[in-house]
What does this fold into?
Amino acid sequence: MAPDAVHSIERLRRARFAVAAVFCVHGAVTGSFATRIPWIQEHAGVSAGQLGLALAFPALGASLAMPLAGAVSHRFGARTALRGLLALWTLSLTLPSLAPNVWGLCAVLFVYGATAGMSDVAMNALGVETENRLGKSIMSSLHGMWSAGALIGSAAGTVAAHLGGDARLHHLIAALVLTALGLLFCQGVLDVHSTPDAEAPPRFSLPPKSALIIGAVGFCAVFAEGASLDWSAVYLRDELGSSAGLAAASTTAFALTMTIARLAGDRVVDRFGAVRTVRVGGAVATLGGVLVVVAPHAAVALAGFGLIGLGVAVVVPLAFAAAGRSGPNPSQAIAGVATITYTSGLIAPSAIGGIADVTSLVFSFGLVTLLALGLVVGAGVLRPGDRKATPTPTPDGAPAQTSGPVGG
It folds into this structure.
């Protein structure tokens, strides 16, 4: 192999590790926030229903801001765009714990979600570009690194909650550390630029019909994921009387199982296929939901949340892959699935809180269990054969067409 080719492959490998580290930083912000939701709820003095309303605003902000990420990357290049957008996201972690009431919480969570969505699009587009140039699947492991970051962030949050630490100080320290790490890791990602005559990407596009059913599968998975991530700690505290530290540990259990499943996901899918993987995963998530609903004490609920995380872990990456094979315009199809999954993220937290206000959190997670069962029923839409990527080891910085948003 020619020295230039060897150098190019090595550069792509370094870019893969760099973008994986970026995914990890992004996930750590989410994990850091999720474990302190009970503290934020108490500090802002909001009810379960009001908290559910506020938790809809991150996904609302993300959904409205995501289209801007493509324009930013088009203008400044992928690396510079990612560097700026990721820094905005990590620094926004300081905002929720400062909210004095429900309306302030809604406002800051809108900003928090907007920065999350834009950085999410930027890093996933670079992940897809890196995968295409390497010529092998890496997206499941990249999402695994996101889950690893969420695990690290939630573990730190669990310790802080157990010690009774003030979330404002905790999140300030976490934001500063994660911002520094994000800026460092962004230096190694691919620096993709659009060609001078390329048109800026459209800000909004309707999903093709072929992506709607695939998006429905992703909807079920993201609903279960968002409900568990945002409400598991509250569930253990309010329904089972757990301590703050043990309640926060439920988020850690969820993140741990998702991390393990996503890191192993590429090999599992290669061996058993997307349909069987999602079908079995749906059955596992359904069992987890049942355990949460009938849990007589915290240990059973912790196991249930862990099984939900295990079952839904690889569904979203597989939904995006199936969308990319579903029609003549892969980017539009992927963007459509991303929109549907973000809509699920918008609905899940507020739906859980609203239903809990009228009935109970137990009833809310009965709905989560039914949606997990939907993965078993709908897995067949992922049946098309896996796409085989062709290596395209173009030099770092060369103009290339990146895929559309892939969601987080």
About this structure: Residues 37 and 230 are 7 Å apart (CA to CA).
